[in-house]
Amino acid sequence: MNRSVKIGTRGSDLALWQAHYVKTELQRHNPNVDFEISVISTTGDQIMDVALSKIGDKGLFTRQIETSLLSGEIDLAVHSLKDLQTSQPDGLRIGAVCEREIPNDAFISRDGRSIDELPTGARVATGSLRRRSQLLHHRPDLIVEELRGNVPTRLRKFDESELDGMILAYAGLNRLGYADRITQIIPADLMLPAVGQGAVAIEICDGNDEINEMVATLDHAETRVCVRAERAFLRQLEGGCQVPIGGLATLEGENLVLTGFVGSLDGSVSFREPAKGIAGEPEDVGFRLAEKLIELGARELLDKARIEAVTAAENVI
Questions:
Q1: Three-state DSSP class for 288?
Q2: DSSP H stretches of helix in 139-208
Q3: pLDDT tens for residues 244-298?
Q4: What domains can be seen in the chain, in order of their start residue?
Q5: Kind and range of the H or E element at 39?
Q6: If you placed Cys at 195, which of 215, 230, 245, 307 could pair as Cys (CB 3.0 to 4.6 Å)?
Q7: Alpha-helical regions (H) of 126-220
Q8: 83 classed as catalytic
Q9: What's the whole-model pTM score?
Q10: Which residue of the set 13, 49, 83, 105 is catalytic?
């Protein structure tokens, strides 16, 4: 009888795409193992009419899945890396980070206009404080509205609305076959993505050598190094979905370059700085960049943003 392995995941279209991708790759490397996908509902999935910044910040899309992993109900979990807390619960760790898709955000326009071409007062939807802050910093004349839901739901809501534009992650749109809806891939110098955006993480239990050996074949070294720097940056700033923080790391030979962003909710104040170091010490690069931004005043800005986030975005589309 073949060994059976259960893969835990959320039930959204994108989460299932990611889980099936991991299943296919694992099956290719382990033909004598039966892989089964188990769908688990999370807090973030269950509460859809409230802004993420109002619900809370710890494990919105992961807590129930991690509980199932620790209890042995599933053998491994597949997540969007950006949803994972920067430190794993005791007994769990990231066993693999798959090769990253393009990490940038994407702009969907009703009439084919780019962000710079939108008229004054145009309405743009996003469920992200990070996107809101950077968009308003670039175009303070725009009106930003809160929108939640999985990728198909957001596209449907957009089509049924009078919104002028919407911002989603390029990775989700491309993976689900909606790349043709994209008007503009937003350059990182205009909008830095979320930490870990575009990367798929496989979470496993500590000490499970069999599962560790299986998932290790899917680990992408370059992606892993980059997201380690980004997550160290976020961890030092104590950030999450309740504050506007962005970060993107790239490799340049033996060096790693990390650019980070911290902003106010209205975009009027922002800090954006780079840091450079050796690729072999990614956490050091992330830590140093966070400390640089803290010295510039990022801590006070984030503390204020956390308070403001509770009262912001009263209406969710």
A1: helix
A2: 151-160, 170-175
A3: 999 999 999 999 999 999 999 999 999 999 999 999 999 999 999 999 999 999 9
A4: 3-98+199-219 (3.40.190.10), 105-192 (3.40.190.10), 234-309 (3.30.160.40)
A5: strand 33-39
A6: 230
A7: 129-138, 151-160, 170-175, 209-216
A8: yes
A9: 0.91
A10: 83
